[in-house]
Amino acid sequence: MPAAWFLGPKAENGEFLREMINLALTEAIGARQDYQPDDPTIPSIQELENDGYRVGTDIFRARFQEILDYLRGSVPMASYRNQSHMYWDTTLPSVVGYFATMLYNQNNCTPEASPITTALEMEVGDDLCRMLGYTIPDREAVRHGAIRPWGHITCDGSVANIESMWAARNIKYLPVALAAAIREDPKMAAGRSLTVRTLQNKRRHVHELDAWTLLNLPIDEVIKLPRRLREAAGFSEAKVKAAMAEYSIQDLGLIEFHRRYLKDTPPPVVMAPATAHYSWHKAGSILGIGRASVIGVKVDLDARTSAVDLRRLLDECLAEGRPVAQVVAVVGSTEESAVDPLHEIVKIRNEFRELGLEFCLHADAAWGGYFASMLRETAWDRRLAAATTEAEREELERGMVRAFGADDPEALPTSGLGDDFNRRSSAFAPDIALNRYVRRQYESLQHCDTITVDPHKGGFVVYPAGALCYRNGELRNIIAFASPVVAHGDIDQSVGFYGIEGSKPGAAATAVYLSHSLIPTDRTGYGALLGKCMFASKRFYAGLVGISKDEDPFYVTTFQRLPAEKAGATRAQVRDQIDLIRREIYASLSDSDLMEALSRDYELRELFTEMGSDQCIVAYTFNYRTLWHHAQTEGGHNHDHQSHGHSRWGQNRSIERCNEMNERMFEAMSLQRFSDEGVPPVDMLVTSSSFDPESYGQDFVDAYARRIGLDPEPGLGIKFLISTQQNPWMTSTKYGDYTPKIIQTLHGIAAKAADYVIKRHWTDHGEEHDRRRHSPGETPGKIPGHHH
To answer: Percentage of the chain surpassing pLDDT 70?
Structure first.
């Protein structure tokens, strides 16, 4: 059952964890004792103390306790109140797997240093590839030319992203280097027979092609060139490597390579959306492409890549003769939880291939990759689909009940809300399927050349555990470095030669492997967990929509637009949808009541499925309003405040003041400083960011400002708060849905922040303001509504 997968917010499975840790210690101690038992030992601590030595155990214990006391002030990641980043509790399998392997200190740079954990990493790589949609053929198919994907663990998503750009850069320039070597090096003259298929599907000799054609050969064709060169010319692998050392970009570097072979060719570019992680600019700098050559693609109002702007940029490169090394699609941005239109981007790539432009397509799914498990069928699904009789289906369902430890078929994991909606809840909370738009993008992951995915994010695995998966596993050979110190055998049996890292913990491989072995990367395991997180996120979004009342000095604007807004509805229709969400989705409904309502009302179900973010991160901005008293005579002139006066709300229109309020709220909901108090002194944890015009574009920021009710100001960004719902139990605690408690806490913090900013700037509107809270019994003249 899922409850056994985590330690729990209150360490509910603490005794089981102790048992597993003790077992790991016992086995590790036994392994040391069993290996060559007659070998000499060193004195134990107890033996030294018995002999009168002071070995400092008291100091050790004191210092260790000091650290333990400090650690109690860490971010309470497993708390219901933690909504700060893309982490929650870590799976027990990953914790005990990491701990057990840590005791053996395995280094996955080579099988010689880590025979067991290297094998585990290879299994993990295959499982991640399958989860993301890559098909792994059998060995016989591979022998007959089938493309086999490959994946490996990195320390994090940043390193995986950098590695993907490294591979994209190298594969872009490999044909130019091979052609130069064949033309210029007499030892390579036999390679003149080497041919390649171009984007125009014509077979040509490599050494006869011009620079632009060489820079835009089909990626899979380029990957095969080194092997085909050896076959065509009878060269050994060592001979090819030795010759290419004088020509490859790996050895010459970007500047010298262009000086020798591409004097008239502009430097390459990488295209990534405004929502892309900062690691992409870091990658450009490290690889010599340069930060400025990582071109930002505009995003739409939902923070998704603009297909129009991507086409424009690719057209410009085509016209300039500028090589495009890589295009990045973000599948789950870490601030907006937005999924780029990957399906459309794949179509765009195919269009530009016909025009003679080729590039690597990468999906940065560091955060969003594990949501692909929601689409992955199980063996039970396939067997049920193949069943031909009712009796056979009933027998399979009974087998599923036994396998999942459920009491009856109604408690089995389901695919959540969607076209195949039903009301079963998978034992502890409802889940929800990916909406139609997001599902379509995930189904296009299989067409990407490389994909970043982080087990330590959506996989609930302990740090560090990122990963990079290749659609064509041979692409990794383009960046391989093998040291004679560690290369003692078949290089294909290692994972350590292909990435940026050298030494890397085998414990990470065990952590992911054990977690995957107990929590399947399909809809019954990770898919169910993340579906419930998405359900909780939509409940939070509904609560956020209804957080402010008429008497409150603040209101909130969710970055993720309502479905009515996306459809271009009128302001009145948007207000109606807000009221519907408050009344039918959030208004103190239990999970069972909400599911019942959704099952009866198709339109409500569609609204629930489509609202909120593409995954389970919600971004939002608070703004304040103040009650002010305006007095005038019958003739319209100002007069005594006791005569002919009326009260009305004044709405802040300053971005700077709005930012001040949200920064104040963030300070109240974050742990930014060291504290030795032992318990974090906050009621709730979120994170924050800013929509910067330099990154997102002035039009994007202006549009968001107007939705908030602010006056756009050129060059000035807008701060926003971020809440991540990664707790599958959020809506189904023993007290019921915990979301109202979170909303209530957020309400109190917003009220205090609004009062603070109002008191500092209470004359902003040029009128006299009543700084007292407007009482619920009063009716102001005009109240700004919930802005979207």
So the answer is: 86
